[in-house]
Amino acid sequence: MSEKIRVLLSEEEVDSRIREIAAKISRDYAGKEIHLICVLKGGVFFTCELAKRITVPVTLDFMSVSSYGDDTKSSGVVKIVKDLDQPLEGKNVLIVEDIIDSGRTLSYLIDILGKRKPESIHLCTLLDKPERRVRDVKVDYSCFNIPDEFVVGYGLDYAQKYRNLPFIGVVELGEN
Ligand SMILES: O=P(O)(O)OC[C@H]1O[C@H](OP(=O)(O)OP(=O)(O)O)[C@H](O)[C@@H]1O
Ligand code: HPA
Ligand SMILES: [Mg+2]
Fold this sequence. Notes:
Layout: E1 2-9, H1 11-28, E2 34-40, H2 44-53, E3 58-66, E4 79-82, E5 92-100, H3 104-114, E6 120-128, E7 141-145, E8 151-152, E9 168-174
Parallel strand pairs: 2-3, 2-5, 5-6, 6-7
Antiparallel strand pairs: 1-9, 3-4, 8-9
The protein binds 1-O-pyrophosphono-5-O-phosphono-alpha-D-ribofuranose (PRP), hypoxanthine and magnesium ion (MG).
Hypoxanthine is lined by residues 68, 99, 101, 150-152, 156-157.
Family: Belongs to the purine/pyrimidine phosphoribosyltransferase family.
Pathway: Purine metabolism; GMP biosynthesis via salvage pathway; GMP from guanine: step 1/1; Purine metabolism; IMP biosynthesis via salvage pathway; IMP from hypoxanthine: step 1/1
GO molecular function, one term: glycosyltransferase activity
C-alpha cells in the first residue's frame, strides 16, 4: 500500500486564518489572562502558532489524551495519558485542539475539566469535521470546517506520521 498526501489547506491559508482567530481571541479576552490547555499530541503545533499571536497574557499547560491509537477510526474510549500540572480554579481556560471529529475527546475533556472550577472554559480548534459528530460540543473558535476525510499535518497524524507537515493534507491510499 502506498500513501499520497493531497493538500487540502495550504501553509499560507492556515497561517493567515490562525492570525485572524488569534486577533479575535485577543479582543474577546481583553483585560484578562488566558490559561491555554494544549491537547497533546495533535494540538501542539496549533497551540504554539496561536499562542505566539495572542496579545493578552497567556499561561500554558498540557494534557495528553488518546482515542485513535494508530488507526483512522476512534476506539470510542478516551484515555488520559498525561493530566495537567496546574489547577484550573479561577482561570479563564481555553482548550486548544487540532481537530474535533466525533466530538468524544472534547466532550470528555470539557466534562472533567469543567468540574475543576475554572472561571470560564472555552474551546478553540484548528479543524472541525461537523459531519462526523456523535457527541454535541459547543465550539467557540474554529479555524476551518472540513469535509469527512482523514487529514494529516499541523500536528495531525496517520499512524504517528505526518504531524510535522506545515499544511493540512488528505491521506490517499493506493495499491503500491
Ligand atoms: O473528536 P474525536 O473523534 O474525539 O477526535 C479528535 C481527537 O483525536 C485526535 O487525537 P488522538 O486521540 O488521535 O491522539 P493524538 O492527539 O495524540 O494524535 C485529535 O488530535 C483529537 O484530539
Ligand atoms: O482526520 C483526522 N486525522 C488525524 N487524526 C484524527 N483524529 C480524529 N480525526 C482525525
Ligand atoms: Mg489529539
